[in-house]
Every structure is written in structure tokens, then in C-alpha cells.
Amino acid sequence: MGRLKSAWAWLTRAWCSSGHERQTVLIVAKSVLAATLAWWVAHGLVHATSPAFAPFSAVLTMSVTIHRSVWQTLRYVAAVVVGVAVQAAIGFSAGPDLFAFVIVAVIALTLSQARTLGEQGPQVATAAFFAFSVYSQSTSNTDRVQQLSQIVLLVLIGCGIGLTVNLTVAPPLRYRSAEQGLHVLAAEMETLLDDMADGLSGSDVSEERAERWRAAGERAQTAVGQARAGLSTAENSLPFNPRRLLPAHRSHLSFTRYRQVLAAMERAVYQLASLTRSLGRWQETEQTYTFTPVLKAYGEFAARLRDLAHVIAELDGDSLTAQAEEMKETADQAQKALQEVLDAASEYGLPLADATRPYGVLVVEATRLMEEFQHTCDVLRDTADV
């Protein structure tokens, strides 16, 4: 029953939202359609000896973006042509014996390492081995030429059908990937800032808590890479995609704001990493917390940054104007909280100039963090109505 409920919940998400589940259903359905059409053409119309090459090629062209699909198809076709050409050159000169196979294997596997073919490189060897099998079973040179040519033809048929299906049936337009990457990154930062606000407000900078902050900072750095991948996917989903011409999608054809926000948040993540290291040094060097009011002010500042991160974690391009205004109000509160940190540092004589103690770094990192979050806020406000 538990598995049935999970499966039903998965199907419900696929039906109701445009998330990962729906994308999975679409790619499977499109792959089935492309493979079926390729098999029908190869088996029913061409009457190929090995029609499976066509549906295999059709499925291989399916990708998350049209741009990537086109490039993968070109590389795959090139790899197959090279593999078949290697077999033809060696086969017709050395014959279909074991020694010839060794030569084919050496050349094909060497060429499969070519960087220009990318992840399709291994297909050189696959095509060469399959071509060798077809070549060795043929009885005449005419038949061998026909069979080797048919392999290339089947690949072209499969790739052509795959690209056509991917291009015409719900072509993937993944502009939301840019937002989703920022959501994950901002959520990681929100979690870290929330725990920091709680710990600093209660003067709890224990070794255990400092270690937890460092681990959270590492997760945030990992999320930066994921956000960059999401942005890249979004940008690559536009070229060759006919859906970009529809009025509903014309407002999502630029990712400048996401690139700028991501750059600012990436810098903020590294500021947070430096901040957590400094707080760890605080725990290591201080036996008593003489500057408790400063810690509390710092905790309040972290709480306001947490609120900013929360807004970014719920960023929605369709309601950006309202969210930009919310960020402005929250950023103003964070600026006031930062000033309270600076005032407390001055009032209680925080030794900022003492290079052996971490206080100067803490204040500097707080200022830099505020600059990056303020920059993010300004970018969203400036582009909200664009």
C-alpha cells in the first residue's frame, strides 16, 4: 500500500505541476514515440537487416534541451560514421579475421577518446564492432558495402526522427531551471543563517555548533554548482526551440538577472564560509564572552539576512515586482541591523585592529555580506518590470 501511495503521489505531481516528475513522463513518452516511429520506418519500410539501430539512435537524441539534443546528435552521427569507416578501411584491406578485429579495436578505441566527440566518443568503438560483425557475416563485397551503408542510414533515420519528435512534441523549455537553482542555494543559505542567528543571539558559539555551520557552508557551496548547472540548462533550452517564439514565453528569454543574482549569492556564500571560520576561531580563542551584546547584535543581523534569503528561496519571475519590494523592505532592516553591529562594536570596544583575534574579520565579513545581499535586491528591483 505504501508503494502504491507513493506511486500515486508521484503521478499526481506529474499531472499537477511542471516539475521533475512531469519532465520525466514527457521524456519517456517522447522516447517511446520516437523509437516506435524509427522501428516502423527501419523494419516496415526499409526492411533493414538490423532495424534496432534506428530506435536506439532515436532515443539517444532525446535530451533536456533542444540545443543539447542537436549537438549530441551531430556527435553521435560523427562517431558512428568514423566507426563504420574504420571497419570498412581495415575490413576491405585485411579481411574479417581476428588480426583485423584487433586492428579495428585499437584504432576505434583510440579515436573514441577524442574530446571533440564528447560523451559520444565510445560510440566509435560500438559502431566499429557492430560493423565488423555485419561485415564478417556478409558473403560478398557488394553485400558488405550495402550492410555498412545501411548502418549509417539507420542512424540517420533514427536521429532524424528523434530530433523531429523532440522539436515538435512539447519541446523542453527549461527557463524555470534558473529559478530552481537559486531556490536551492537560497534555502541552504537561509538554513545556515537561521542557525547562526539562533546561536549568536544566545551566545552559543560552541565547537559543535561551529562545526555544524561549517558543514552547512559546504552544502551551500555545493548548491552554487547546482545553481550554475540550472542556469546553464535554462540558457541552453532556448536555441532552436520554437516555443521561445510564443507570447507566453517571450518574457523569459533573458537570464541576465539570474546570472547577476547568482554571482552575488556565490560571493555571499564564500563570505559566509569565511564568517563561520572566524566564529570558529572566536570559540577557540575566547574563554569568556565579554562582548555578548555584540554577539546578540550580530545574531539579529544574521536573522535579517535569513529573511532576505527566504525571499530569494521563493523567487518567482511572474510576481517579481512584489517580491522586489519585499526584499527592499527586508534589506533596509538588515542595513539597520548591520549599523547596530557596528555601533555595538564601537560602544563595547571590540578590538577590531587586533590581528590575532577574529573581531575585525567578523565586522568586515558582515559589511561584505550586506553589500552582496543589497546588490541582489537592487538587481531584482531594476529588472522587475523589464
Structural summary, described in words:
By secondary structure, the chain is an all-alpha fold. The chain has 13 helices and no strands. The chain has helices at 2-16, 20-45, 53-60, 66-94, 98-111, 123-137, 141-168, 176-201, 207-236, 256-285, 292-313, 320-347, 359-383. 38% of the residues are buried. Mean pLDDT is 80; it is low at 246-253.
Question: What's the average pLDDT?
Answer: 80
Largest sheet: none
SS summary, helix count:
13
Tell me the number of strands.
0
Order of helices and strands: HHHHHHHHHHHHH
The separation of the N and C termini measures 49 Å
Percentage of residues in strands: under 5%
Structural class: mainly alpha
What form results from the Cα inertia axes?
A: elongated
**Helical content band:** over 70%
| Radius of gyration over C-alpha positions, nearest whole angstrom | 29 Å
Give the low-pLDDT segments: 246-253
Question: What's the helix and strand layout?
Answer:
Layout: H1 2-16, H2 20-45, H3 53-60, H4 66-94, H5 98-111, H6 123-137, H7 141-168, H8 176-201, H9 207-236, H10 256-285, H11 292-313, H12 320-347, H13 359-383
